[in-house]
């Protein structure tokens, strides 16, 4: 669907202009939103708006990283919002010209919807222009990254303390997934950060220079996010190493205890074997208290070994 | 084979010029393609086209990385296409001068063939020049990298989930191979990216400056590729670590269970050994229910140890 | 609470001005401190002092990294003090204008309190201005980082030598915590270092340029801190690796000794088993000294194996 | 030995000038080679050629990295050739002045010998100057690195596939040695690359600027070498990890099989032990087919456990 | 102790001037050395020499990294000498002004002592100035780093080949210590390198510019040192990994052999157990050669298993 808001020189909002009417002189600036456009509607980018074929290709394809391209008298932005439910990137593209902004997205965007309503409800229309629209949308996009990072941080917290009493396999798999999400997040946050940095320092984007404080604020958030993502990736490393080493240590300890038990019984069983031999001439067998003596000897050997191993610390 | 396309000032395509005829005034620009050249044909680079011996050496030898050299009034490019079947680099070299492009390749190149056909079939000959030829070939070369990365990503996906139920050895070997391919890919993608970056920012390549959007588009793709390759290399690390730790954990678990079983039978066997001793005077042996008592005792000890180990969690 | 110190042109200290009075001509410069401000007081940032809404938002929110923003005729700083007891960041914000400094903090700050007292007690009022206030507070904030790093270094020292005779699990958990603290510290020290670097090199902060030596001294300390934090993080790596390898080596050694003992008794028990068989015709059983011969043989085998394993070094 | 070639203004080669004669006006340019110089000959650097004491010190000492120093009207280069037999660095130093080059080396250098012969046999003397001498020697030095890298790559190939059927210990030691050689190679290739980069971009070396294509060609080779060395170092990491994990996995598998065997025999031996007990009243012992029943029971238990373990996959 | 050397305009050495006399016109330049100064003497830095309080603070405190600060008409340097016996940093500070150098150190310095003697014994006083003093001291300081690196390299060599036949624990602890020393060394060498680099490129240090070759020589040495330290740190990594993997492999091999022995005896002992059972009706027991048949069978099983395991390579 293509929606249009135009602001006239008299600061009146018009929401039912046609694409052709937008070029009229009484239009101060306008915003066209391509929301889940049909193939027919996409063609308007070329036929009515005359954008460069490479930029249009970038709109259509899903392959893009966040970036900024200059084309003659307009700029083209690719940004990524994050779908909170599935931590999946969704591309939003912008064309920003002298007196217009065109937003383009294959999937519905809460950020654009909210900004649209904000503009419709605004009482200070004189303050708005296409760059303020861009700021509001990007601010909301970046604000939308935080809940996802918080969610991952919380997951890591739970994994660190294993509050849900899960098995090793489950913990490792979740940790692996969390690392994977953080890697994907990184590939959104870092290029977004670089994009906003370029916007702030570009000599061609005068409108952004005038609103420098606003876009700086977004840049701050992206710096913070990049730091959080990297710190959390390091944390996953630490958590995994700490898991594995504790687990292997525990496993070793158990094997040690079991083997100590086995080792204590070996000589005892051997002694029992000796007196189970059927030699004709075995004096001990005929002693009256031979059995009890041997039992006592076994007891001593068993306890002795136990104490010896315990003393060496092999039992804990 | 040496093939030639020349475009005359009247925008007529000529495909049967000789090398000598190309210098005539009525030629606007031309493209010479050295496809699997013979030794004789290679000598034309020197004798007819007068290129620098070092550039010709770079054409002949296989040692080169993607790069850009300036020689007086022409530039020399080394690029790498990838052979999809074997993930093997194949060098394609270009000489780009004031009104010509010379392409040189020891192996047939789909990219050059397709661009050649595109030019032959073009209806807007006025739009073409040597830089547009270069753009189309490089665009196709870089587009040719993606299927290979996708193929490796898919292989990693299968390895991650072990959909083919392979043994540890097979998985590790395939992972090792995948890492190796990614490393090789990296050594193609990174220098290509740097090459295109230099092309975009060079003060000597006016023709590229005029088509900046086109070469920027290639640069975008190379940035994306570099990111994908690096992310996938990180992923192989994660997959391997996760394999190894899960495998070693599983192996530990099995050993633990086996050792617990052994440990439970040790004292039982020992007790049986005791009553197998042949002492004359062993009161228990003569008790009427001695045997059943001992059997019951063994049963209790066995079950007791089993429960104790189970309670300690050593059995899972 | 809002506290105010104003210095008049005659270098008199005034501590009971109202916010409105500060704009008078006879005020040379002033310092307003927002210490644990109420919601009402926070509104003064906007109503009386007219700061930019984004800067005020940064004051209120806890999300910030240390940074420096320029707003028209004042600059806005975010800094982090560290709460020594819990190694927790606490934000302190500054607005520095032509003839004033405004400090803002949600939690009480020893650094600000001490500087306040210093200024009240100062006898050379002519030397003071808003930048000297800023210097003194930041100097104290950064000096406050050192005890924490020293504390962590001491903890690492104790862990390295395990002076408290702790178990592996305890050691690893403490090491993990120390790494975590160092990571958090890093995220305070690095942005603070970059902030002071920007202050030193900014063309807009003339007052800091004039006191360059002072802020350079803070920068030195931050460089030193960053180096210490990184070196200590590397040290935690080394300590953990050295723990784990020693522990695993020790564990292996114990298992080896236990298994050697088991292995020595295996053939002995087997021999005893042989002569425990009940075959009718077993000549050895009837020999007069068969039993003692076999005992001696067992002794030889046992000692032989022991010496053989010892010779191979499998016993230590 | 000190050898001299001088070229006169009439382009005649003179090979028996004395050091003093070289300053004459009819000499266009000259090359002095210090090949395995005696202490006496080394003094000529100071007495006859008046080079700076620090540069002479750098000639004599073995401590140097490849580098470039400017001294008034001459430049001083330190380069490293590699002794192919032992992968050992050998320093070659150059002084390059307005009309001369001085080469200095403690050990004989094939590169210098070959260039010397090339110059003696040259028919286009007008093309030669001191920079062409420098180019030819450095080109040969850098070409001499390749066989060593190829040799190491081949060694890695053999190690990867263990074509020689070596034990783990031998493989690991060879891998360790290969890593060590690669590290040493890296410390030659990286500073040489940086040296040639500086030569290419230096404003003081006009002679090199004029031969830019030639020295760029060397730079290409060094870039390629640096990439190969780094990739091979990464490969050694991968090979080692893959060794160790496969080996440990195999070792685990063997232990598992052995332990499974042991575990199967434990209960069987225990049962045999039970019926080896000497209780008076053991009804089973008197059953006619008790023995065969028990044998059959043991067989069932053994096979059952075997199948059970096999079913669990603990046997492969 | 405060020692003074002054050089008069007539190039006469004076060693017994007072601090006050140094300002006289007939003094060309002078050197004041604060060697293990008392608290009283330290005060002269402020009272007689009027240095900046922050620089004096840096002299007194031990916290400093090597660095360079500019104060009006003098520069302040912090450098680190290394105490060879304990590999401990010792700070030496310099103030370098228009016609003086002041050196300050809490501990005696061989480097300063030697330079002092060199100056006293010099016959070419005209060549000396404060920068030559600085060069000589810094050259000696940096030369003093080499023996320590060589010492560590030798220690690594011995560890690599375990020439002293030490246990694993001892080797690992020494390796850990060596890593620690290298890390400490790195924190001296890297800032010293950066300091000398800044000295070489500073626009404010004209005296150093004039002696550029000399300070470049020191910079060379520091570059070399940084490379050696980093290479040696990588080497410690390699050595440790190679230790651990060889050790663990050896340990696995031993366990395998022991377990194979145990596994061979398990079925034999079981068979002996069978014929130790007391069933009434066990036909084999009454066979005339049953015993010898069973013995032979046991021998066959034992040898068979041994050969089978040996064939599988589980015995080496
Ligand atoms: Mg798109
Ligand atoms: Mg925001
Ligand atoms: Mg906001
Ligand atoms: Mg903000
Ligand atoms: Mg971090
Ligand atoms: Mg990462
Ligand atoms: Mg080629
Ligand atoms: Mg493309
Ligand atoms: Mg395309
Ligand atoms: Mg594109
Ligand atoms: Mg890599
Ligand atoms: Mg990445
Ligand atoms: Mg790594
Ligand atoms: Mg705040
Ligand atoms: Mg301080
Ligand atoms: Mg201080
Ligand atoms: Mg870190
Ligand atoms: Mg200081
Ligand atoms: Mg470090
Ligand atoms: Mg030398
Ligand atoms: Mg070459
Ligand atoms: Mg070449
Ligand atoms: Mg060549
Ligand atoms: Mg690489
Ligand atoms: Mg490396
Ligand atoms: Mg000091
Ligand atoms: Mg020196
Ligand atoms: Mg020297
Ligand atoms: Mg030197
Ligand atoms: Mg290195
Ligand atoms: Mg390091």
TrEMBL record, chains A, B, C, D, E:
Name where it mostly resides.
membrane
Superkingdom of the source?
Bacteria
Q: How does this protein lie in the membrane?
A: Multi-pass membrane protein
Subcellular location(s) per record = Cell membrane; Membrane
| Gene3D superfamilies in alphabetical order | CorA soluble domain-like, Magnesium transport protein CorA, transmembrane region
> Which Pfam family name is an example for this entry?
CorA
Q: Which InterPro entries match?
A: CorA_cytoplasmic_dom, CorA_TM1_TM2, Mg/Co-transport_prot_CorA, MgTranspt_CorA/ZnTranspt_ZntB
Q: Where are the transmembrane segments?
A: 257-277, 289-309
What keywords tag this UniProt record? Answer: Cell membrane, Ion transport, Magnesium, Membrane, Transmembrane, Transmembrane helix, Transport
What's this chain's function? Mediates influx of magnesium ions.
**Family indicated by similarity:** Belongs to the CorA metal ion transporter (MIT) (TC 1.A.35) family.
By what name is this protein known?
A: Magnesium transport protein CorA
């Amino acid at each position: 669907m293509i929606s249009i808001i135009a602001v006239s020189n008299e600061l009146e909002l018009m929401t039912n202009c046609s694409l052709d009417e937008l070029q009229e002189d009484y239009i101060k600036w306008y915003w066209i939103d391509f929301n889940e456009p049909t193939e027919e509607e996409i063609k308007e980018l070329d036929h009515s708006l005359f954008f460069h074929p490479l930029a249009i290709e970038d709109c259509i394809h899903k392959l893009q990283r966040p970036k900024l391209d200059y084309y003659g008298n307009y700029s083209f932005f690719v940004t990524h919002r994050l779908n909170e439910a599935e931590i999946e990137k969704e591309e939003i593209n912008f064309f920003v010209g002298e007196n217009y902004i065109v937003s383009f997205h294959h999937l519905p965007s809460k950020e654009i919807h909210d900004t649209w309503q904000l503009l419709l409800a605004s009482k200070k229309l004189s303050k708005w222009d296409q760059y303020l629209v861009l700021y509001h949308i990007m601010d909301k996009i970046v604000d939308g990254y935080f809940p996802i990072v918080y969610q991952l941080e919380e997951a890591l917290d739970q994994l660190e303390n294993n509050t849900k009493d899960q098995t090793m396999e489950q913990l490792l798999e979740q940790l692996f997934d969390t690392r994977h999400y953080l890697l994907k997040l990184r590939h959104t946050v870092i290029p977004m950060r670089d994009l906003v940095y370029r916007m702030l320092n570009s000599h061609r984007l005068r409108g952004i220079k005038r609103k420098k404080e606003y876009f700086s604020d977004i840049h701050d958030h992206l710096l913070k996010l990049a730091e959080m993502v990297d710190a959390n990736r390091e944390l996953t490393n630490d958590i995994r190493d700490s898991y594995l080493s504790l687990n292997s240590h525990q496993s070793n300890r158990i094997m040690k205890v079991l083997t100590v038990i086995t080792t204590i019984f070996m000589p005892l069983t051997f002694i029992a074997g000796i007196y189970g031999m059927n030699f004709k001439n075995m004096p001990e067998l005929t002693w009256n208290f031979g059995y009890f003596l041997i039992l006592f000897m076994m007891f001593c050997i068993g306890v002795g070994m136990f104490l010896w191993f315990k003393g060496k610390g092999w039992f804990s």
